[in-house]
Prior knowledge:
The protein is mainly α.
Amino acid sequence: MAPERGNEGRAVAERGSVGLAVAGAVLIGALTALQARINGTLGAEIGDGFVAAAISFGSGLVILIALSALVPQGRRGFERLVSGIRSRTIPAWTLLGGLAGAFTVASQGLTVATIGVALFTVGFVAGQTTGGLVLDRVGFGPAGVVPVTVRRVIGALLAIAGVVVCLSGDAIGGVPLWMLIVPAIAGAGVAWQQGTNGRLRVRVESPLTATLVNFIGGTVVLLVAAFVHVGVVGAPRAVPTEPWLYVGGAVGVVYIFLSAVVVRRTGVLLLGLGSVVGLLTTSVLLDALWPAPAAPATPVALLAAAVAIAGVAVAAVPWRRRSR
C-alpha cells in the first residue's frame, strides 16, 4: 500500500507541476499580446516600426544587463556562457534565439496598429502551433522528443480552428496579405526560439542568462535594421512622451524568461498552446478597449478564444482511464 500511495503522491505532484507550467504558458501569451499592443502603438506614434522595435529590445537589454550584474545566478550563468563559448561546448546556433524575438517585435511595430492585436494573433498562433508540432516531433526542445499524440494533434487543430473563426468576419477586407503572413512567420520563429532558449538554459543553468543572450542578439539586429531604415526613409516624425509606450522591452524580458523556464516542463507544443489562450483572451480585451481599424468583432474574437481554450484543455489535461 505504501509504495502505491507514494506513486499516487508523485502523480499528483506531477499533475500539479504541469498545471502550474501551463498556467505560466497562458501568462506568457497574455504578456505577448500586451507587448504587441504597446509596440504597435509606439510604432504608429513614431511612424517607424523598426525604430520602435529597437527601442523596445534595447530597453529590455538594459534591464537584463543590470539584473545579470546584480543577481548571483546571473553572474554565474554569464560565466558559464563565456566558458562554454570558449570551449565550444555551447553550440553557436543556441545563441541565435534573439533573431526570432527581434522579428516578432518588428512585426508588432509594423502591423498591430492597423490589424489589431487579435488579427496579429491569428497569424502568430497559426505559425506557432504548426512550428510547435514539428519541433516537438523532431525533439528540438530541451525535453527531447515529445510524442505527438492524438490528443495533442486534436488540441493543435482546435487552436487553428480558433484562428479560422477569427478570420470568418469581414475585418480582414482590404488588409494587405503580408500583414497576416508576417505574424505567421513570427509565430513559427517563436516556437523555434522557445526550444532554443530552453536548450541554452540547460547549458548555462540560468534562464536569466538565456534571456540576456536573446536580447543581445535581437538588439544588435534591430539597431542595424533601424539605422538602415532611417537612412532610407528619414528620421521618425515624432517622439511620444507617454511612459507606457516604452515598457514593451520590460514585458518582453518577463515572458522570454518565463518561456525558458516553462518549456522544460511543457514541451514546445504545449507551451505554444497554453500561450494561445493568453494571447487570444488578452487580445480580445485589448481590442475591445482600444479597437484597431481591422480588428474583428468582439463576439467573433470571443468565440475564437473559446475554441482555442478547448484545444489547450484537450492537449494539456492529463485524462486518466478509469480502473476496473
